[in-house]
Write a structure and sequence with these properties.
Radius of gyration: 44 Å
Helix content: over 70%
Distance between the termini: 80 Å
Structural class: mainly alpha
Number of domains: 4
Number of helices: 10
Strand content: under 5%
Low-confidence stretches: 134-147, 172-185, 201-231, 272-276, 353-365
Strand order of the largest sheet: 1-2
Number of strands: 2
Oligomer: single chain
Largest sheet: 2 strands, antiparallel
Length: 459
């Protein structure tokens, strides 16, 4: 039994060591994934799209390997938990057998001290059993595929290019359209042979792009058809111009919103010093108008870019979505700063009021400082009171927890007594003896008090 338990603990140790090694391998794969992404970025900057695709495939493969390593480590942890639970249950069963033997001996002899010690050990084993029966979470889902589909490679390349503002042209899977088959191909082959025999070898040889329609009178009516041309470059040029305009507006908005944030942070400080603040108000209004105008222009440019997108242009759609996200972020940041400026203006009006250009402030700088100092003291007092209340709530929570703990101990002792009738009868006997001792002690104390009173009266 002892050798088997040692072997079980050795297996648990080996499994834990293997799980740690798998976690390290997962971290190594994640670092290699980052390195492959960096190589793909450098290849895209140099214009080597084939190399970038290879690096992207390697990055996706490393990510899948990292997930697989994590899944194997999780499964090994689950196995370790079960083996550990089995080992602990074996030790608990062995301890319970010894306690039962000791309990039988104690029940025969029935000494009170030994019975109390045995019951304490018995309760401790139950508590250990409750602690050691924890349940592990489920393992990870099914393994991730090791293949690297072209869609994932293209998405990863587009993401890297968009994060680093790179221009890439990737072939789209949806654009490789296969022409529809021609109906009645056999009949048209025969008609083509008859047409070649009728028009001769030199007919319409000058202009091969001319369509010849031969009637039953053998008259060649050639109708010129325009040759197929690739997609017009006007849409591509318009897209590039709109994208350059969007980047320019985004850079301007970044600078203007940063300046607006600095002005909003220094707005309240001017009022605390007793300044008029009119110059700051004018600057804030000017910056606000400029930011609103730039946001409107950027929104119009994004709308124009959405109209310039043709069917199947996934890379352009992804770029447009990113520009829209940037516009949304700028709008949210501007609204946040505007709310801060409004709150600061209301706070300044409450404390000092805004004075005119020629008149002095209604409250001097010293009075404003006193009010602010008084307000700071009140805030600190409120914080101290909140801290005391929090401490009181913590003490109340701890007392409640202790009460629940004592209730649980009482209920556990009662359940143990109900589970073992002999122990229950023994506890009842102890309780009756304790009550009898209390009654005797109370009677003795009463007699002593009566004798003392009689002594004082006779004296």
């Amino acid at each position: 039994m002892f050798n088997s338990s040692n072997k079980l603990f050795d297996q648990i140790f080996e499994l834990k060591f293997t799980s740690k090694q798998l976690n390290k391998q997962s971290q190594k794969c994640e670092s290699e994934e980052k390195a492959e992404k960096g190589k793909a970025k450098k290849a895209m900057e140099k214009g080597n799209m084939e190399g970038a695709k290879i690096y992207a495939q390697n990055a996706i493969r490393k990510k899948s390997e990292a997930l697989n390593y994590l899944q194997l480590a999780s499964r090994l942890d689950a196995v370790v938990s079960r083996l550990d639970q089995q080992a602990k249950m074996a030790s608990v069963s062995k301890s319970m057998a010894g306690i039962v033997k000791t309990l039988n001996v104690a029940l025969k002899n029935a000494p009170l001290d030994k019975m109390v010690n045995t019951m304490n050990q018995f309760e401790k084993q139950f508590e250990d059993l409750d602690v050691n029966t924890a349940v592990m979470d489920d393992a990870m889902n099914k393994q991730a595929a090791l293949s690297t589909p072209p869609d994932q490679v293209n998405e990863l390349l587009l993401k890297i290019a968009d994060e680093n503002n790179l221009e890439v042209q990737l072939p789209q899977a949806g654009n490789n359209k296969v022409p529809a088959p021609i109906a009645q191909e056999g009949d048209k082959d025969s008609l083509t042979a008859r047409l070649d025999a009728l028009k001769g070898p030199d007919a319409c040889a000058v202009a091969p792009h001319i369509n010849c329609d031969l009637t039953f009178l053998n008259i060649c009516t050639c109708s010129p058809t325009p040759p197929t041309r690739p997609e017009s470059e006007a849409t591509s040029k318009a897209w590039e111009e709109l994208r350059r305009e969007a980047r320019k507006l985004e850079g301007e908005l970044d600078v203007k919103i940063a300046a607006y944030g600095k002005l909003s942070s220094s707005y309240e400080y001017g009022y605390t010093k007793g300044e008029s603040g009119l110059s700051t108000d004018q600057l804030l209004q000017t910056k606000s108008v400029e930011i609103n105008t730039a946001l409107a222009r950027l929104s119009d440019v994004n709308s124009s870019m959405s109209h310039a997108i043709t069917g199947g242009a996934d890379s352009r759609a992804h770029t447009l979505a990113r520009h829209r996200d940037i516009l949304h972020d700028f709008t949210q940041e501007y609204r946040r700063l505007s709310s801060i400026v409004g709150a600061a203006r209301e706070r300044a009006d409450l404390l000092g009021g805004i004075s005119g250009t020629s008149s002095a402030p209604l409250m001097g700088g010293g009075n404003t400082g006193l009010l602010l100092r008084e307000r700071g003291l009140l805030d600190r007092s409120h914080a101290a009171v909140d801290q005391v209340i929090g401490q009181a709530q913590g003490v109340a929570a701890s007392l409640t927890g202790q009460r629940q703990l004592f209730d649980a101990i009482d209920s556990k002792v009662a359940s143990i007594g109900a589970r073992f009738p002999v122990v229950n009868s023994l506890l009842n006997a102890i309780r009756r003896r304790k009550n009898r001792d209390n009654v005797i002690l109370a009677g003795v104390m009463g007699v002593c008090m009566l004798l003392i009173l009689l002594y004082w009266v006779n004296k």
